[in-house]
Design a protein that fits this description.
alpha/beta; Helicase, Ruva Protein, domain 3; Rossmann fold; 2 domains; 5-stranded parallel beta sheet; 4-stranded mixed beta sheet; 13 helices; 9 strands; 14% strand; binds guanosine-5'-monophosphate
Length: 294
């Protein structure tokens, strides 16, 4: 008799098992690509409950990390006493802790990304700068939630998450905001979880928020970098606010009064960037972000 007789499976069971094996292979392949591209770390894989991932060999996982490769994998496994055929699901807590230590020590972990908080008076061009950086792979731009109505051309989930007052209240109650504030009669908030997730993957994060929100972030995350965007002159800011076609006259007057107040807050920020050009400010923001990695 063979040592491991094939299990007696019906046709449909065999088909299902085949489908499961294909899904597991696909999960493993996409995890390895994510690790190679640094959109995920080995610790995302270790915490991934999918069977296909849990049954992946540790050696296969480590070899996928940029800068590790097969030779260093072998040495690492030997040093950490992880046996050759060990699968992810079979790693003990001490081995996981040792891996983490080793990865941080050897700078194989990208570390926590920086948190750049951009603020400044309404009309200074913050959202144009944000839109300019939205597709830049060096920074992840947070998408805020708001109770205000969408403007023409604004897209749900890209410019904002447009929420009802009730839903916004629920998010506050569930502590789902990193910060939130009221501005010109509407509420705006930064969803906490996506920001933390991106930073834990080593990505730099950009928030574009008003001043009260920036102050909240500073008190909760003292390591954040607060950047104030200033107009080249007060006259230019007034011009920009008065020419906004999307606002009612009352709203424009309110924004002007607010802008004056907002300009007075510049001193609380770590950096002041004068918006002479969108490209110039975007460039400076990126260099601040990469200078302040953790
Ligand atoms: P707008 O309605 O013109 O898009 O934005 C109004 C103000 O709200 C801007 O100053 C913008 O930076 C700010 N804002 C946008 N999202 C957030 C957020 O998540 N939190 C806070 N505190 N302010 C925000």
């Amino acid at each position: 008799m063979p040592k491991n007789p094939p299990p007696n499976l019906s046709d449909s069971e065999r088909i299902q098992a085949g489908q499961r094996a294909i899904a597991a292979r696909r999960d493993r392949a996409s995890m390895k690509i994510d690790i190679a591209n640094r959109t995920k770390t080995i610790f995302d894989a270790i915490n991934d409950p999918r069977q296909g991932i849990q049954r992946m060999r540790v050696s296969e996982l480590l070899a996928a990390v940029p800068g590790v490769g097969t030779r260093r994998t072998f040495l690492l496994m030997e040093k950490l006493k992880i046996s050759e055929g060990r699968r992810i699901g079979g790693l003990g807590p001490n081995q996981i802790a040792a891996l983490r230590e080793e990865f941080i020590l050897n700078k194989l972990e990208p570390g926590v990304g920086s948190l750049i908080v951009m603020s400044g008076p309404g009309g200074v061009g913050k959202s144009t700068i944000t839109n300019h950086l939205r597709d830049n792979p060096s920074i992840w731009v947070s998408v805020s939630a708001t109770t205000r109505q969408p403007r023409e051309n604004e897209r749900e989930g890209i410019d904002y998450f447009f929420l009802t007052d009730e839903k916004f209240d629920q998010m506050i109650a569930a502590d789902k905001f990193l910060e939130w504030a009221e501005f010109a009669g509407n509420r705006y908030g930064t969803p906490r979880e996506p920001v933390e997730h991106a930073r834990n993957l080593g990505k730099n994060v950009l928030l574009e928020i008003e001043i009260a929100g920036a102050r909240q972030v500073r008190s909760k995350s003292p390591e954040s970098v607060l950047v104030f965007i200033s107009p080249p002159s007060w006259e230019e800011l007034v011009n920009r606010l008065e020419n906004r076609g999307t606002d009612s006259p009352e709203r424009r007057a309110a924004r002007l009064a607010l802008a004056e107040e907002e300009m007075a807050a510049a001193g609380d920020f770590d950096h002041i960037l004068v918006n002479h050009s969108v490209e110039g400010v975007a460039e400076q923001l990126l260099s601040l972000a990469s200078a302040k990695r953790h």
